[in-house]
Amino acid sequence: MAFDIRSIKRIYEDEELNFSTDEENGVIRFSMNTQVSPDVRFNARVINPRTVMFTTILPMNVPENCRMAISEYLTRVNYMLILGNFQLDMNDGELSYKAVGVYEEDTGLADSVVIRLTYVGFNMFDKYMPGVFAIIYGGRSVEEAFEEAVKKED
């Protein structure tokens, strides 16, 4: 049996998540409140028979005048990450976290891996979005925001 959007749907049903499914386009969507932001959007999308992309999206866009600073902050953060990465659309300010699951077509992804890849973006938002907000709303420099984020790891 092939691993597809229905496989992810079953896992999310077991997790009792409230989601919508677009099986034609291979996408599942839902929103979740995190420690740092309400209504963080999420989608899981089957890219091809061996790849699923898990994307967590901030519900606000980064203001144009802050995008270069946020881009630098995210570059510093991304350098440290092992799984996934932050992305900033410089045109509209959309900020997202993406993680990808790659698997053998015959075996799919283990349920535990799907759950981990689903929640990793929400966890990364809780960990690193305070730095984004400190730059946008708190007047912090990129270096200060990054140092505070790294300091919390100790």
C-alpha end-to-end distance: 44 Å
In the sheet with the most strands, the strands line up as: 1-2-3-4-6-5
> Helix segment count?
4
Question: Total strand count, please?
Answer: 6
* Uncertain segments: none
The helix/strand series, from N terminus to C terminus, equals HEEEEHEEHH
- Which structural category fits the helices and strands? alpha+beta
What's the overall geometry? elongated
Relative strand content: 15-25%
Question: Could you estimate the helical fraction of the residues in percent?
Answer: 40-55%
Mean pLDDT: 93
Outline the biggest β-sheet: 6 strands, antiparallel
The radius of gyration over CA amounts to 16 Å
Secondary-structure map:
Elements: H1 5-14, E1 20-22, E2 27-32, E3 40-48, E4 51-57, H2 67-80, E5 85-88, E6 95-102, H3 111-138, H4 142-151
Antiparallel strand pairs: 1-2, 2-3, 3-4, 4-6, 5-6
Helix pairs in contact: 2-3, 2-4, 3-4
Question: Short description, anyone?
Answer:
40% of the residues lie in helices and 24% in strands. It has helices spanning 5-14, 67-80, 111-138, 142-151, and strands at residues 20-22, 27-32, 40-48, 51-57, 85-88, 95-102. The chain is elongated and about 50 Å long.
What report would you give on this structure?
By secondary structure, this protein is α+β, with helices and mostly antiparallel strands. Helices cover 40% and strands 24% of the residues. The protein is built from 4 helices and 6 strands; from the N terminus they run αββββαββαα. It has helices at residues 5-14, 67-80, 111-138, 142-151, and strands at residues 20-22, 27-32, 40-48, 51-57, 85-88, 95-102. It has a 6-stranded antiparallel β-sheet. A hairpin with a 4-residue loop joins strand 1 (20-22) and strand 2. Helix 2 (67-80) runs parallel beside helix 4 and helix 3 (111-138) crosses helix 4. The longest helix has 28 residues, at 111-138. It is elongated and about 50 Å long.
